[in-house]
Amino acid sequence: SQALQGADILAHADQHHQYQVFMPDFFYGKPIHPSIFPPDNEEKKKQLGDFFAGPASPPDTAKKVPDLVQKLGDKYTGVKKWASLGMCWGGKVCLSLQIQSPP
Prior knowledge:
Elements: H1 2-12, H2 42-53, H3 58-62, H4 65-75, H5 89-100
């Protein structure tokens, strides 16, 4: 997928600074179905709204990140610095994370 390809590029683009990239599945294997896009009728709009209000709520997802980082840090002890990067929905999660836990 494009997401995995982007993660690989990010991880290996700089030969002097290799990065470990983690891509958690915050939807637990149940993403919204691509047939919802574009949300061009009331049913699709409702399904999309319900998804963003439920399992894809950026503020609720951001609340999961500190525990995830703690668990990853326990396993990958060589990681000294953490950062988050997100595009589109992931960007909203990153922003929500900053609002909840400013640097």
